[in-house]
Amino acid sequence: MKKILCNYYVTYRCNAECEFCDFKHHDKYRNSPHAGLNDVLANLEQLKSIGIKIVDFTGGEPLLNPGLPEMLAGAKRLGMLTSVTTNCLLYPRKAEKLKGKIDLLHFSLDSMIPEKHNRIRGSESFNHVMYSIERALSLGEKPDLLFTVTEDNFYEIKDMYEFVKKLKLILILNPVFSHYRNEKISEDALSMIEEYSKLPFVYLSKGFLRIRRKGGNDVYNPVCRAVSSVIVISPDNRLLLPCYHRAEASIPVNGDLVNTLSSEKYNYYLKKEGRLDFCKGCTINCYFEPSFALSLNKYMIDGIPGKIKYIATKYIYQRFLRGVSRTAVF
Known about the structure:
The chain is α/β, with parallel strands linked by helices and 330 residues long. The protein has helices at residues 37-49, 68-77, 91-98, 114-121, 126-138, 157-167, 187-197, 206-214, 226-229, 257-260, 264-272, 285-292, 298-329; strands at 5-9, 54-58, 81-86, 104-108, 144-149, 171-175, 202-203, 230-233, 238-241, 249-252. The chain has an 8-stranded parallel β-sheet with strand order 7-6-5-4-3-2-1-8, sandwiched between helices.
């Protein structure tokens, strides 16, 4: 199977305590080591050699790793697409060093009501998000706003949409999931998500809605291709299997990622992907989107219109606006 994406956990530390995230429940993460710059740069070379096109530098809060700008620069030198999602608490002070190094920059925003966003995120981050948007735009960046949709906030999609429409940014609708259980989302919420996904400046893979309504991954006919499509590397330089959220095994990379991918343990999980007991009912978005891309099926077809709209907005319309802005300046 062709691998598409690397989820590179550059740190497990976080400076927020989001309601829906299990990082906040693990004291062991608080002082855990960051990924080392040399390890990351060496692994990026090997990821490139096996065909990985996209590296999502994730966490925790990835901006806590002081080596992140150099890691991103390393990926860009190799011609890889980079992605970072941040709660924005650190973005304003690091924006200059990150400029031009992140292709898919995502700012987490879960409510237009400051107090509610801060409660959901377990931090006083709302004002940081607003300032980060302003700072990013001043640097010529076009961040996407990542809206984690729950039963508690789905009715706020309209306000979020009006906000991004004015800024001509993209709103990514991300139906909530939890690391160890599936969060319940009502049909009312799913229907509202679906309606707004049809509008300009909104991105959603409709395959997420299909698999939610179906009840999640079926272990007898699995949709998940997490092992086939995604490589997950931990801050302590280990390959996590079958995925980060359900990691029951890991293999030390030891400077030879390619050899790690041919190990007996790796091949065991490759054969078992989507079929393990804990895979039943899974709806973890970050593994299903690349999984949908591997097979010509209804999930892939569901996702095509959204991807076309995202690409057209991000790489044609927003770039056109930047050109108009530069022309206006001169």
